[in-house]
Structures are given as structure tokens and as C-alpha cells.
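Just curious. Invent one:
>
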Amino acid sequence: MDLARLVAAVRSLFRRVLGSRITHFAVLGGLLFAFARPAPTDTRVSLGTDYLRSLHAAQALRLGVPSLSDERSFEVDRRAVEDEVLYREAVRLGLDRDDAMVREHLIQKMLLFAEDIGGASREPTHEEVAAYFEKTRERWQKDERVHLVHVFSTRREAAASLLEAVRAQDAAHPDRPPPLGDAFARSRDVRGAKGDFAESFGDGFAGAVFALPPGAWSDPVESRFGWHLVKVLQHTAGTKAKLDEVYDRVRLEYAVERRHEAIAQFLAQAFERYQVLVDGAPLPHVEPTRRLALRSMPSGED
């Protein structure tokens, strides 16, 4: 083989080696271990029986069984040891630094910690809920409601042509929807709050029927389905609610408010240990925002 061919063969070999993913991983791994933090002085991995039992119970719950077999329990124990070693190695190699996911996880752990030490994880007492209800009483209203009957048609002109016949039959049965118009899959006798009507028929229909005077058949009113002749039988104004009527809603809002307050108090104290700069200029005051810790298993408050 002449010299030119030998040089070309050597260059081709180097290109294949340097272009290999295995080579890239080997180099990256070498760099990680070369610049890794020193091994910790305490190399013991110590796990408690109570901790392992909690892992067994959690795995049994996930599998839907009352308890784990000895073999599965042993597997859980080995996995717990592996997880601890992997975690320590990740920290030693600096993989926890400059990682957005790790950063967000730690932030959420601190928010949970702030809620816990602020007492927000405790179930509120009836007395506390009642006191919060009195403090925010103006917000707790029984919804304005309407009871109506209607006749349906897919076309406005067809609905309008039925109005005279509907009013004629209304004299005999004022509380019933006349059996006229097109078939309608839902009830022709409906009652509910404005939000109920908006969800079922659309916002425009809800606004229109809540503005109608009771006792008379309307001109055609449009919904998401088509057109309706509507007669409002009863219109009940919203009134102030009693605690027992809205207790669950009040308890939920109060629990969320306590979590907001606990985090805000924790942040206010933490801000005292830091100087916040924006483009080198200090901020004179940082006001905590309203935020909650995210839970992996959502509660009714999230």
C-alpha cells in the first residue's frame, strides 16, 4: 500500500471513531467523573424499617393487593437502596446543578414546607370556617334562579309562526309546554341558575331568559340548538346564603386562603435574608404573590 492510501485509511478510521456515539458518551462520562465532587466522607446508606414498610404499603396500594409477597418486598428494598445510591451519585457528579426540573421540584418542596409550618395543612375547625364566613359574608349568595317552559324549532321563522298557537294552548295549561314545534332531546321544563342555562343553552340564551318578565310567552330566543319560544314561570332573586347552605364552598375557600397566607408569611421572612437586584439596582420591597404548592395527588383545594 502506498503512503497516500495509508494516510487516507488512518483519517477514515479517526473519523469513524470520533463520530461514534459510544466515543462521545465515553468522553462525556470521563469529563463528569474527572470534574465531579469528591466522594462523601460518609459512605453508609442507612434505611429505616419504618421507611421501607411505607414503601411496601405504597407499592401494595399501587398494585391493588393487601400486602406484598416476600419476593416483591425484597425487590422494593433493593430498589430503595439503588435509588439512594443513584441520588448520591447524581449529587456527587453535580447533576443537580443548573437543572430546571430539579429546581422546580425543590421550589415545590419549599412551598409544601411553608404551608406545613404555617399550619395550613391542618383541617380547619367548624368555628374557623364560621368566622371566615362572617368575615366574607357579602360573597356568599344563593344564585338567582329561573323556572321556564319552552317550545323548540330549528328555524326562527318556524318558531315565530308557532307563537299564536302556543299562546292559545297556554290558556288551558299555563304551567305546561305545549306539544308543538320540533322534537327536543332535553326537557322542555327547565329550572336553574344562570350558569346552568349558559352551560346547557349558551350565554346568549341565559342572558335573554333571565331578562324576560314572568308569565308571558316570548318572541323566539336563540340558543346553541336553534330557536325557542320561552315562558318564565318563576324568577327567584339571589339572596344571602346561610352557612349550612354553602359550608363546603366556604371551607374550601378558607383552606386555600390559609395556604396562600402561610406561603406569603414564609416568603416575607425569607426575603429579609436576601438582597434582590435587577440589573444591579436593588428592589426596595418584594411583595409575595398568591401561590400554592402543587401536590402530586391533587386535593379538592387544587
In short: The beta strands are 141-142, 145-153, 189-193, 221-222, 227-236, 239-240, 277-278, 281-282. The radius of gyration is 34 Å. The chain has three domains: 3-99, 100-128+242-302, 141-240. The chain has a mean pLDDT of 85.
